[in-house]
Amino acid sequence: MTLTNRRDFLRQTSLSAVCLSALRGQDAKFVVADTTFGKIRAIDNAGIKTFKGIPYAATTAGQNRFMPPADPAKWTGVRDALEFGHSAPQRDPSVAPAGGGLGVAAQNLPAEGEDCLVLNVWTPALNDNRKRPVMFWCHGGGFATGSGSSPDTDGTNLARRGDVVVVTINHRLNVLGFANLSEFSRDFASSGDNGMLDIVHALRWVRANIGHFGGDPNTVMIFGQSGGGRKVETLLAMPSAKGLFHRATIESGAALQVAGRDVAMRNAEQLLAKLGIAKSDVRHLQKLPVEKIMAAYFAVVRDQPGIDQTVSGFVPSVDGKILPQHPFQPAASSVSAEVPIMIGNTRTEMTLFSANDADAFRLNDDGLQTRVRGLLGANAPEMIALYRKLNPSATPSDIYFLIASDYRYGAPTVKIAERRAALGKGPVFLYYFKWETPVQGGRLKSPHTMEIPFAFDNVKISARLTGGGPEAMALADKLSDTWIAFARTGDPNNAKIPHWPAFTSTERATMVMDNTCEVVKDPLREQRIAMFRAMNLT
């Protein structure tokens, strides 16, 4: 292999310049693994075997569109697993692609396509009879966008640090994963939850195959951030997922509920109307170009201004069978009640969503009142007064971000911890991430997605989020080991953090994650009580 060819190879497989240097003067080292569908070949990157784009299910195009996932066809010979597979369709065909930004789940993604049911594996060894914990990542982006192939969630560092196996996946999203067409055709009975059934199918692949990759199918942790956290919450309520995972981590993904059937059916009817398809002819959807379906989906969403797409858009819906109830509404689902949970959020989640809203960072008192009134109505003045009392040096923008973050993430996260702990089975560990990033002059403070680079030990790769400095590296040393400890034992305690007791509704032990980590009992007590009351969270 010539040096030029090696460069091309490394560029195609997303390996680093460090790997290029290591491969000068020698051939690339390949490894081959068995799966139930055939052999696959991948690259050995300084001891970590990296498999990309492994099909865990068949294409979802054509006659498989809106159908439950099916196994892929078996292959003969050795199939290359050197490049990431397709991202799920998610782009509006009428809008030019956007690049850059701070997003994690949608950063520098591969091309989109309906043959997107693929997964990636990072492992220290193959077939060595070791039983390593498996860390199974559900990507963010709501239920609408994103991919498991983001550079920020590369599993190399995590696999090497913790002697674990890391799996990331792609699955159907938005209209293709969650359009509920069940009332129009029995063939589409599962269509409203197919995107979640894809994840269950991937977990079944892990159970059947991960032993070949040095992993333990009986020690699987599902974890995810934002929309990925909502996917974890939904899996906790799905009977078909029970027993396929053994720990669960929910990062800034607070969602007490998903969509109700009425919402799901309304969206499906609007989709057919946009496409000019009669309900009796719903199977015609399988013959249309995917771009036409995506255009109609975005048209439906545009007709719903102000609607919270996380619970009223094309998202999982309660159908009484695949998803018998909302994950945490009115109480926590008892499905998988024995699974230990680690859950938390960041202090100023909403600064990320306002990164392109310059006015949000220079509010005056009137602007603060207007924005908080939009969230909390008549409760706005009382809430602003409380947060000002507790944060006397905060600017109006600071107060807004704290209130909005607790409204959207903080209060629901604590309520989920309460309702899950009330089951009295698997333990719950609650955290509050408050480390502040120095990027953009520090204005983002502790934004949404901030914990991802620390959990993956990727603070250098994600320097645009973390700054990549020594403080970030030191915190990653603690937090990555904490995520690994939880994956290994179902208990996050390790030598690098203070003792972290399980959460109870009386003690409310919370790990506050910062340069110095500490356990605090009910650290946001006054805010929590006021927000629960304002949001009618009983």
Protein traits:
Rossmann fold; 13-stranded mixed sheet; 538 residues; 16 helices; globular; disordered N terminus; alpha/beta
Description:
With 538 residues, this protein is of the alpha/beta class. Among the domains are: 1-54, no CATH class; 341-535, Rossmann fold (3-Layer(aba) Sandwich). Helix content is 33%, strand content 15%. It has helices at 3-12, 17-23, 156-162, 174-178, 194-209, 227-235, 261-275, 290-302, 309-312, 365-376, 380-390, 396-421, 451-455, 463-466, 470-489, 525-535; strands spanning 30-35, 38-45, 48-55, 78-80, 118-123, 132-138, 165-169, 215-225, 247-251, 341-346, 428-433, 509-513, 518-521. Strands 1, 2, 3, 4, 5, 6, 7, 8, 9, 10, 11, 12 and 13 form a 13-stranded mixed sheet that branches. α7 packs across α8, α10 packs parallel to α12 (396-421) and α12 packs across α16. The radius of gyration is 23 Å and the shape is globular.
